[in-house]
Structures are given as C-alpha cells and as structure tokens.
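Protocol step 4 of 6: structure prediction from sequence.
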Amino acid sequence: MDLPQKIRTLPTSPGVYLYKNAEGDVIYVGKAKNLRSRVASYFHEGRWEDAKTGTLVREAVDVDYVVVANNKEALALENHLIKQKKPRFNILLRDDKTYPYVKLTLGERSPRVYVTRRLRKDGSAYYGPYFPANLAYRIVDLIHRHFLVPSCKVDLTRFHPRPCLQYYIKRCLGPCVKELTTPEIYSEAARDVKLFLEGRQTDLVKSLRARMAEAANAQEFERAAKHRDLISTVEQLQRRATAGKAEDRSRRRR
C-alpha cells in the first residue's frame, strides 16, 4: 500500500504518527488530535512551500501510528518516542536555526544561489536543511565552480561597466555585464542548478548529454567539452552519494 492510500485508512482518533524513509528509519514523530487529518495535512500543496516540510514529505515513504486515549497520552508518548528513536527531522525542526539551507532566487532576472538560515515566502526555492552545517557551503561552492551561478550581492537588475572577480576566476557567467552571457544561457544554468539541488541528477545528465551532442554537431567543441566535464562531475557525485548510502545502511546493520 502506497503512502497516500495508507493515509486514507488512518483512524480519526488521537494518537502519535511516525514517518519513515525508504530504509525504514523513523525520520519524524508527531502527535495529533485526529491522526488522519493531521498526517494528510502534510501533503497539501501549500505546505510544500515550507522548505522543512517539503524535505520531510519528499523523504517519507511510510507512516506508522499509535492510537491513544487523549492528548495528554499523545504528548507523553511523543516525547518518549523522540528520545528513543532520535528522529532526524524532530531535531532539525526543533533547532532549525542551527542548520542552513541553500536558496535559489528563482524570482530574480538572474537567479543566484547562496546559504541562508532564514526561510521566506519570496518565490525562491529552498533546499535543506543540511547537516553538518558546512555541507551547505560545500554544495554552493560546487555550484559556483561547475554551474557558474553566483552568490554575489551585486545589483543584477541592471548592467554594470565591468564584472567582479568571480567572473575572472571562472566562478560566474557574468550576468552583471551586458553581452558577457545571454538570458538563454543563464536561464539554462539556473535550470541545471535547480535539477541538481532537487536531486534529479539523472534528468540533469540526460539534458547535458543532449546539449553536448548538439554542440558537437554544430562543431562548438568548447561548449561540448564544458557539458562533458559537467556530466563527469555530476556522475562522480552520484557515485559518492550511492556509496555513502550503502555505507550508512551497513553501519546501521552492525
């Protein structure tokens, strides 16, 4: 039974619910006066705008529950299970100022990407929270080096006479100066960053391969080589992530 079907079968009684990820680990524990209504509320589209809830919903593949007599029992059981299971999202949601997010400013003419600890409803996309905290900074640094989408605080609503240092050290496409890049090229880079941050590496690699072939056919060999190098980087990151997950599962079994 998939998760949406299971939610429809939950009782309307008070109780405690436990979200689980694909490995069967409890990632969040919560209490509710009405289990079915409360658990279903996580999947209302408006709540996905909240970065924390959106990340939780993407990881959750199953839910267990315990029915109790009243709210007092639910609170006691919730506290007990959080101490026992140490669910990752309970820790993050309780102390979310400790953990940073990666922000992609989709509402801007030239989107930027940077680390933030403040979540706003401003049309931007937020990814995370990340822990350890320096992981968010490493991800943003990788985006600068390979996707050339900057974090700068330069006013990108207008053009400037010359680019900043980030352009010269090849960590930015230079949207701040007219004709250093084009809106099409920059939008393409921002879309690639979005796919990367959403974990859609397979879709990203497929798109990059198509563009690499197109550039090669047009004898634009420098552009084809850039796409090839980015494909190699993304695939290397995929392999590391897969190896890391396998190591985590092995460690938990021990």
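Step 5 (inspection) to follow. The longest helix spans residues 221-253.
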